[in-house]
Amino acid sequence: MSSTSILTNYIRDSVPCMFVKYGDGEHFAANFYNGGNCDGTPYTRNLGEKVIESFIYNSQQKNTMVGVKSWDYCAPKSFFESVLPSGSAPVNWVDYHTVIIDNDTPIQQQSSEKLELYKAIKESTRRKIYIANPKMYKSKEIFNIDHHIEVHPSNWFDNEFETVFNSIKEKIENDTNTMILCSAGMGAKYLVTALHKLYPNAIYIDIGSAFDTICTGIRTRTCYSSYEELSNYLKPIIPESN
Questions:
Q1: Rounded Cα–Cα distance for residues 208 and 191 (Å)
Q2: How far, in Å, CA of 166 to CA of 171, rounded?
Q3: Of 44, 91, 208, 234, which is the most exposed, with the fewest CB atoms less than 10 Å away?
Q4: How far apart (Å, rounded) are the C-alpha atoms in residues 92 and 102?
Q5: For residues 136 and 93, is the Cβ–Cβ distance under 8 A?
Q6: CB neighbours (10 Å) of residue 211?
Q7: How distant is the alpha carbon of residue 234 from its chain centre?
Q8: Which residues pair with 128 in a beta bridge?
C-alpha cells in the first residue's frame, strides 16, 4: 500500500499520526549553509539546529512517515540518518510527494489516491488548524479548515515562532479531535515537534506547497500540475463558488 493510501486511512480512522518532509532545504539548513531556500527563507543557525532536533524527535514517533527524495546536489536521507543517536529506531521513509499532486505522470492518467487523501482531509470531523501564509485563505472553504493561522511566507520562524506557537495552542481544545496542517516551510518541522510533545493525539500533516496552486491559482513549483488540471481532478471536493 502506498504512503498516500496509508495516510488517507489514518485520517479516515482518526488515528494519531505524522507526515513530515525533509528535502534539500532542510538538508542545507541542517548543514548550516549560507543563503536560503527557494521561498526566500534564510538558513540561520537557529533554524538548522531546530531542523536537526525535529528530525531526531519526529522520526521516532509512532505512526510517523518521513517524506524524502534525493537530488543530484544533495542526499537528505543519508545525512539525516547520520544525526540519529545510537539505538534509534529505523526511519519510516516514504515518498516525498505523498501529499503532492505532481506532473511526473499526466494528471489524467493518475489514480484517485491523492483525490481520496484530499477528500479525507476535507471530510475529517477533527477540528483543522492550518498554518500557512495569508494567500492560502481559500483553503478554509475548500478543505473545511476551522482556523487559519497566518505566517509570513518566507521568514516567520526566527521572528514569530512563539507567537505562532501560542496562537495554535489557543485553538486546541482536545488533541484527540485536532488535525494540524502546515504550509510553513522548513520551520514547520520543529513546529510539529513542539506541538506533538504537548498534543501527541493530534494528526500532523506537513502539507508544504501542495495546496498552493488550487488555493491561489499560482503554480509555485514546476513539478506541479496546472490550476485547470487540478481543478478538474479535484472537482468532487471543490466548492462551486471557488
A1: 13
A2: 9
A3: 44
A4: 22
A5: no
A6: 25
A7: 19
A8: 179
Q: Where are the domains of the chain?
A: 3-237
Alpha-carbon span 147 to 129, nearest angstrom: 5
Task: Report the C-alpha gap between 209 and 221 in whole angstroms.
Answer: 8
Sign (positive or negative) of CA dihedral 46, 172, 89, 1: negative
Specify the length of the chain in residues: 242
Alpha-carbon gap, residue 17 to 199, rounded angstroms: 11
Reading the block at residue 223, the C-alpha cell is 513539478
pLDDT per residue rounded down to tens, the chain (242 residues): 999 999 999 999 999 999 999 999 999 999 999 998 888 899 999 999 999 999 999 999 999 999 998 888 888 999 999 999 999 999 999 999 999 987 666 666 677 899 999 999 999 999 999 999 999 999 999 999 999 999 998 889 999 999 999 999 999 999 999 999 999 999 999 999 999 999 999 999 999 988 988 888 877 676 667 888 888 889 999 987 65
Q: Which residue in the block uniquely carries the three cell numbers 478554509?
A: 140
